[in-house]
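Trying the structure run again after the queue cleared.
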Amino acid sequence: MSSCEGLRKLPTSIGQLSALQNLDFGWCSSLQELPSSIGQLSALQNLHLKNCSKLQELPTSIGQLSALQNLNLWGCSKLQELPTSIGQLSALQNLDFGWCSSLQELPTSIGQLSALQNLDLRGCSSLQELPTSIGQLSALQNLDLCGCSSLQELPTSIGQLSALQNLHLWGCSSLQELPTSIGQLSALQNLDLKHCSKLQELPTSIGQLSALQNLDLCGCSSLQELPTSIGQLSALQNLHLRGCSKLQELPTSIGQLSALQDLDFGWCSSLQELPTSIGQLSALQNLDLWGCSSL
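Done. Tokens:
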């Protein structure tokens, strides 16, 4: 049923499709609601509601979809809240809320999604906070918060995400700091903080991220310094600081980054010197100092 732009509602009888595994309403831009009977689809594994731009809510019965593995709500720009029952989706692996720009909060029950591996909240520009219960998502590998421009902080519980490999915070322009608990993310490989323009510092605990390979701080225009502990990132291969215009110096410990291959300081216009220890970066292949006018 994808791209049925004139479709406004569904018959109640859709709940009788007991063998249905895949249901795609993507780009049904006139669809305003789902019938409660949708909860009767006991075999449903994939529900796609991408760009259903008039959909304002989900029925409570959605929590009855015990076989559901993938729920895609990308571009449901009028969706303001989620039913508490969403936490009952015990088989759910992928949950996509990308560009749900009216979504203001997530229910506490989201922490009950024990099988969830991917949570996409990119472009949720009205989302101001994450519930503490997000730390209960023990299977979560990817958390995308890019463009959550109203998000001011991350809950301390985020450090409990022991399986998390990728954390994307690109464009979280209201984020002022990271919780100390972020250092507990022992599986984290990629940390994207591009254009977090209010971020002034990184917690010392960041040095505990033993699996971290990529750290991107491009456009963090309020960042004034890096913690000495950054030298403990033994797996770090790429460190990008392009456009960190208030960064004046680098810690000597940066020379300890034995795996570092790519170091980008482009347009760090306040950077005045490089530490002598930079000569210890034996694996370094690329060094970009373009636009470092104070160097």
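The longest strand covers residues 22-24. Worth checking whether this holds up in the mutant runs.
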